[in-house]
């Protein structure tokens, strides 16, 4: 009994980490790209795009979950296309949980990436260009290294948010033990079933994991900010 | 320099109104003479109508409902939620409530009957028997989580008796209440699901009843007054009302049977 609970808890933890890591990786690529575009490109409706991209931070997760269910569900316009052409189903799969977590956590990366890129001294980029670097080289050797610290802070927040995602995930991915039942959903279900022993174990595990993530974050991104004069 | 005092009095004004708003809310909570009924999710539509009728028959009396699967409702009552009446979708949950001395045993009555059915999305060919659900063409089956959702408990018992539980469990999508099973099937996200006949009747255009499953234990709904109710007299009146002809007519209209 106790060891079965423990096994279930470890499986849920592993799944939570897997989902959060994938979601963060997706957000890293998409969020940095979107943040860079918002910081550097001038186009009409830029602030509107910015607001729409930040929407997941403000909307209740249930609203996002409903949107996702309607769009990527088997009868949704993206969902039916995915199933018919690629045979991919997102609802009730861990990939669906990744999608939900990635959308919910996206604004954290996008917003901090935009702020970080806006803080990069454009003169340094111009100097690099004058010295003969191409656009890609300027981005990867000058801009990104200078903005990295701010982006990393956003990425860690995004990971934390994805790790704790509950509402949208439950609506899109359901609660299938071992497949889509992440820690936060396992806690909910244990409480619903009156299994306080399992719930206690799960919340202790979650709290410990979160403290570990925070400690790791402190290691990766020391508080000292490199002197910018 | 009148601006500063003005601004200060303005913020004081807002603070006072904020505190007043809080006090009003708090007094609203304290004077909760309203009747709170925690009822199984499958009763949602019928009980909302019965609540309105009960309010009309008892002027000044307000009824508020808390609908969810019976398991979590029991947990809430056990943890001290201010509930006056509890109606569950199975005997098992009410038995647990009785064992934990959460309900007044003398007030417990069975007020309605239901049946377990297998439903499929309306555009799919319905299976004919439980064994058909094992076929690979049925990829996912929605079942209420047996640990906390009565319809899941009935489903598990039936499938275990038929020797099919292991096969169905492998493709089971656990739902948090019978209404979630209904929603999954209506959206076509799963190929089949187990709900009560009264739930299936709510969405005739979206789901189709494949067949009725006979359960070993009849699906009988018990109702009882919660022991910790501060409103026991009204609670008893509500329990009696649910068994009365007007309420039974409403329940029958939603597809429930007599107990």
Please describe what this structure looks like:
The complex is a heterodimer of chains A (229) and B (259). Chain A is mostly helical. Chain A has a single domain (2-119, 149-220), classed as Orthogonal Bundle (MetI-like fold), CATH 1.10.3720. Helix content of chain A is 79%, strand content 0%. Chain A contains ten helices and no strands. Chain A is globular. The termini of chain A are far apart. Chain B has 259 residues and is of the alpha/beta class. Chain B has two domains: 32-113 and 220-253, Periplasmic binding protein-like II (D-Maltodextrin-Binding Protein, domain 2, 3-Layer(aba) Sandwich), CATH 3.40.190; 116-213, 3-Layer(aba) Sandwich (D-Maltodextrin-Binding Protein, domain 2). Chain B contains ten helices and ten strands. Chain B has helices spanning 3-30, 44-57, 70-78, 91-99, 150-161, 165-170, 178-186, 197-200, 232-243, 245-253; strands at 35-40, 63-68, 85-87, 109-114, 116-121, 141-144, 172-175, 192-196, 207-213, 219-225. In chain B, helix 2 links the parallel strand 1 (35-40) and strand 2 (63-68). In chain B, helix 2 (44-57) runs antiparallel to helix 10 and helix 3 runs parallel beside helix 4. Chain B is globular, with a radius of gyration of 23 Å. Chains A and B meet through helix 9 of A and helix 3 and strand 7 of B.
Helix percentage range of chain A: over 70%
CATH level-four homologous superfamily name of chain A: MetI-like
The end-to-end distance of chain A, rounded to whole angstroms, is 60 Å
Which pair of chains forms the biggest interface, and how many residues does each contribute? A-B, 17 and 19 residues
Estimated radius of gyration of chain A: 20 Å
What is the domain tally of chain B? 2
Poorly predicted segments of chain A = none
**CATH-defined topology of the largest domain in chain B:** D-Maltodextrin-Binding Protein, domain 2
Structural class of chain B: alpha/beta
Taken as a percent bin, the fraction of beta residues of chain B is 15-25%
- Major sheet characteristics of chain A: none
Q: State the helix count of chain B.
A: 10
CATH class of the largest domain in chain B: Alpha Beta
Basic shape of chain A: globular
Termini separation of chain B: 78 Å
Q: Bin the helical content of chain B.
A: 40-55%
CATH fold category name of chain A: MetI-like fold
**Mean of the pLDDT scores of chain A?**
89
């Amino acid at each position: 009994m106790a060891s079965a609970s423990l096994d279930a808890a470890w499986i849920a933890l592993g799944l939570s980490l897997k989902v959060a890591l994938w979601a963060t990786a997706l957000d890293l690529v998409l969020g940095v790209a979107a943040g860079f575009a918002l910081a550097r490109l001038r186009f009409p409706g830029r602030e509107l795009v910015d607001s729409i991209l930040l929407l997941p931070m403000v909307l209740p997760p249930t609203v996002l979950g409903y949107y996702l269910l309607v769009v990527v569900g088997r009868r949704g316009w993206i969902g039916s296309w995915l199933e018919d052409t690629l045979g991919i189903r997102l609802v009730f799969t861990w990939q669906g949980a990744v999608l939900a977590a990635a959308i919910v956590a996206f604004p954290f990366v996008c917003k901090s990436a935009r702020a970080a890129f806006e803080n990069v001294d454009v003169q340094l980029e111009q100097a690099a260009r004058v010295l003969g670097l191409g656009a890609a080289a300027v981005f990867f050797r000058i801009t990104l290294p200078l903005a990295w610290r701010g982006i990393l802070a956003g990425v860690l927040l995004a990971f934390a948010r994805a790790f704790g995602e509950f509402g949208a995930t439950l609506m899109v991915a359901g609660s299938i033990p071992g497949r889509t039942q992440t820690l936060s959903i396992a806690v909910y279900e244990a409480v619903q079933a009156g299994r306080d022993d399992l719930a206690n174990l799960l919340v202790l595990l979650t709290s410990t994991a979160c403290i570990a993530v925070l400690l790791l974050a402190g290691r990766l991104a020391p508080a000292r900010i490199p002197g910018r004069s | 320099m009148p601006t500063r005092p003005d601004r200060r009095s303005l913020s004081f004004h807002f603070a006072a109104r904020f505190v007043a708003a809080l006090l009003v809310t708090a007094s609203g909570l304290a004077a909760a003479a309203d009747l709170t009924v925690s009822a199984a999710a499958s009763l949602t539509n019928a009980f909302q109508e019965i609540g309105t009728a009960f309010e009309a028959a008892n002027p000044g009396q307000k009824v508020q409902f808390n609908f969810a699967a019976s398991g979590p409702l029991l947990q809430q009552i056990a943890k001290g939620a201010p509930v006056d009446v509890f109606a569950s979708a199975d005997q098992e949950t009410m038995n647990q409530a009785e064992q934990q001395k959460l309900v007044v045993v003398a007030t417990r009555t069975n007020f309605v009957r239901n049946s377990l059915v297998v439903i499929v999305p309306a555009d799919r060919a319905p299976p004919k028997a439980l064994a058909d659900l094992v076929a690979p063409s049925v990829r996912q089956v929605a079942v209420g989580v047996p640990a906390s959702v009565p319809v899941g408990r009935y489903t598990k018992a039936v499938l275990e008796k038929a020797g099919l539980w292991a096969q169905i469990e492998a493709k089971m999508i656990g739902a948090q209440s019978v209404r979630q099973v209904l929603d999954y099937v209506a959206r076509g996200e799963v190929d089949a699901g187990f709900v009560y006949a009264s739930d299936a009747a709510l969405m005739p255009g979206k789901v189709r009843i494949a067949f009725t499953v006979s359960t070993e234990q009849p699906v009988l709904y018990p109702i009882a007054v919660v022991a910790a109710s501060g409103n026991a007299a009204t609670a008893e009146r509500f329990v009696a009302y649910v068994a009365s002809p007007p309420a039974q007519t409403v329940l029958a209209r939603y597809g429930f049977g007599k107990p």
